[in-house]
Every structure is written in structure tokens, then in C-alpha cells.
Write a structure and sequence with these properties.
The protein has 225 residues and is of the alpha+beta class. The longest helix has 15 residues. The chain contains four helices and twelve strands, in the order ααββββαβββββββαβ. It has a single domain, classed as q2cbj1_9rhob like domain (Jelly Rolls).
């Protein structure tokens, strides 16, 4: 798994990066984030939960992939880097975001993840390829609300809740963000006894950079580790 960032490292990264991704959207600039309702039809992205766990990295034109048994940030989850069926939607979302922020964007990568009960996304700030990011809620069978948390530009902690198809646009390199443990662990034990499907929450990160910004060298995820 990727090494966990300390709070000191997060604070330093946020401080160094603050104000380095300027857009023409005044509200986005003031907050560092925007909730966009109905960003995309969630049916375009819906996919039944696969049986496999870990991380799948897709490459090439023939849908080849490598498999790592443990996902790098959230142990026990399933995540997919550049899952081919989502490519068209990724470019569609890019066009809409360009209209919202008022700037031309360049593509870096997208990454979807299935969370399961008790899993969490630790506090962190993102690498340069995630300058302009959006987290889209694809689907869930969880009845509880489960929020995406961040520290906004003014230092306030926010918890944002999304419906399927909604997107949370945020400055990935400039804002500390995370998810608390997903609820449902106790109910999942009952569901297993009854032969019901496991509780899950599916979302996708779509990452971009400002085409004429400080991170233009990251286009096509050239900063990938």
C-alpha cells in the first residue's frame, strides 16, 4: 500500500500548492470545491460489483491489465486505473467541466473504486496529475448517507453528500480530503447470513489539469509514479 501521509506532510503540501490552480469560476476559487448535481447519467458508469479485489491497472488498446492484490490506498477495496468502458464518459465530463471552470483542461487519468463496510479513505492531498478533480457517485446499495470530507480554502471542514450521477469538483492538490469509515459492517454480517449481496459504494475520480497551468507537463498522467 502507498505510504500514509502525516498531517504535517498534508499541511505542507496544501500550503505550497494553495493558489496554484487558478480558474475563471469565482465560486470555485472562493471555496476550492463545487457540488455539481446531475453531472452525468449514472447508468453510463454502472457496473455490477466484480468478485475480484485489489487494483487493476489497464493499459494499451486491447484492454490488458495488471493486477495487484491489495489496492494502494484502501485495503480490501477494488479499484481500476483507466478502466476502458469509462473512457468516453471521461471525455464527456471534461467538456462539461471546462464550461464550468471557464478554462481549457487536459486529461490525466481516471480511477474508480468500490468501497465496502468499515473502509475509509485517509486524509491526504493529491499529486500533480489531480489538479482539477471530480469525484462522481456511481451507485450503492447502502441506505446510510456517506459523505466526502474536505477542508475548504478558508480552513472549514465540509462534508458533502452526493446522489448517483452527482459530482464533487475540487482542487485535489490544494485541499486536504478524506472519507470516514463506511457504515454497514454490522448489517453486512446479517446480509451474509441471509444470502444478500454485500454492501458497497462505487465512485470514480476523474482527474484533469489546466492546459495552460503550472502542471501542464502532467497531461496524459506523465507524472505517474
Amino acid at each position: 500500500m502507498a505510504e500514509q501521509m502525516t498531517q504535517e506532510q498534508i499541511d505542507w503540501q496544501v500550503k505550497v500548492n494553495r493558489g496554484t490552480a487558478k480558474t475563471k469560476n469565482q465560486i470555485f476559487e472562493k471555496q476550492g470545491y463545487l457540488v455539481i448535481r446531475d453531472l452525468i447519467d449514472p447508468q453510463e458508469l454502472f457496473c455490477e460489483v466484480p468478485n475480484i479485489r485489489g487494483q487493476l491497472n489497464y493499459y494499451g488498446k486491447l484492454e490488458k491489465f495488471s493486477h495487484t492484490p491489495v489496492e494502494q490506498q484502501v485495503e480490501g477495496s477494488l479499484a481500476r486505473y483507466y478502466y476502458p468502458p469509462y473512457k468516453e464518459s471521461y471525455f464527456k465530463v471534461k467538456k462539461r467541466l471546462e464550461n464550468i471552470v471557464g478554462n481549457a483542461l487536459a486529461t490525466t487519468y481516471y480511477y474508480d473504486r468500490y468501497y465496502f463496510p468499515s473502509m475509509e479513505l485517509k486524509k491526504h492531498a493529491d499529486r500533480d496529475a489531480c489538479e482539477i478533480s471530480v469525484s462522481i457517485h456511481i451507485g450503492t446499495n447502502l441506505k446510510d448517507k456517506w459523505g466526502f470530507k474536505l477542508i475548504d480554502v478558508e480552513g472549514n471542514e465540509k462534508e458533502l453528500f452526493l446522489n448517483p450521477g452527482d459530482g464533487l469538483l475540487y482542487k485535489g492538490c490544494e485541499l486536504c480530503h478524506w472519507r470516514d469509515p463506511m457504515p454497514g459492517k454490522r448489517r453486512n454480517k446479517i446480509r451474509k447470513l441471509l444470502g444478500m449481496k454485500e454492501l458497497y459504494y462505487h465512485q470514480i475520480f476523474m482527474h484533469y489539469i489546466l492546459r495552460d497551468g503550472l502542471r501542464a507537463h502532467c497531461a496524459n498522467d506523465m507524472s505517474r509514479n
